[in-house]
Design goal:
Shape: globular
Helix content: 25-40%
Number of domains: 1
Mean pLDDT: 76
Order of helices and strands: HHEEHHEEEEEEE
Number of helices: 4
Low-confidence stretches: 1-68
CATH class: Alpha Beta
Structural class: alpha+beta
């Protein structure tokens, strides 16, 4: 288990990133598809934000692998490490999704800023989803989502990219945070495509990527 590294200030980065998004976002991806209803958003976020590790073979194809993930599971009492610098976007998406999945197992809205640009639509929706869990006194319980087929869709510049990934969500439960009693069973979701718009602070050579925007592209045809 590593220590979560410091990430650039969400508000400082957000001012630059949101400005870039207004200019370039329409060309980069299809736009934010978060649900307006916080309960719906919680379901959408949870479906997107649990994962297992990924590997890339010699052909460049990314595939999912099973836990354990360097000893990290969603049940650990402390947040998983975030090493989201560099250009290995399969690993970056993997870690982001696993981290937010952990947050839904241990709800704390403040931790959302370690993955999302503060005040962005994705940050607002995810934070509302986690806060809804806190208000209801519930948490997730279940296996992580599998992540596969990660690839860069568009490179706007060295600090602004759009990445594609496929998420497959196994069935899981929403349980009472105190007693562990099952409040709701959710059936999971078949493989679905997602786009993640990532940005990092151009003025910080050690900056880590953050999510500015994300879009659910729908389930894959069988």
């Amino acid at each position: 288990m590593g220590i979560v590294p410091a990430v650039p200030s969400g508000r400082r980065l957000g001012a630059w990133a949101l400005s870039a998004g207004l200019i370039l976002g329409a060309a980069a991806c299809s736009g934010e598809s978060e649900a307006a209803d916080p309960a719906d958003e919680a379901t959408t976020t949870t479906a997107a934000d649990r994962t297992t590790t990924t590997t890339t073979d010699a052909t460049g194809t990314t595939s999912s692998t099973s836990l354990p993930r360097d000893g990290e599971t969603l049940d650990l009492p402390t947040p998983p490490a975030l090493r989201t610098g560099g250009e290995d976007f399969a690993s970056i998406i993997d870690q982001m999704v696993f981290y937010i999945g952990w947050v839904y197992h241990h709800p704390d809205p403040a931790l959302v800023s370690n993955v999302y640009v503060e005040n962005s639509p994705a940050w607002t929706a995810s934070r509302q989803g986690v806060q809804d869990y806190v208000d209801r006194g519930v948490k997730d319980q279940g296996e992580p989502t599998a992540v596969s087929n990660v690839k860069v869709l568009s490179t706007i510049d060295a600090n602004h990219v759009v990445v594609y990934a496929v998420f497959t969500v196994p069935p899981y439960d929403v349980v009472d945070a105190g007693t562990g009693a099952v409040v709701e069973h959710r059936p999971g979701r078949p493989p679905a495509g997602w786009s993640y718009e990532l940005v990092r602070d151009p003025n910080d050579p050690n900056a880590h990527w953050l999510v500015l925007n994300r879009s659910d592209l729908g389930e894959l045809s069988q």
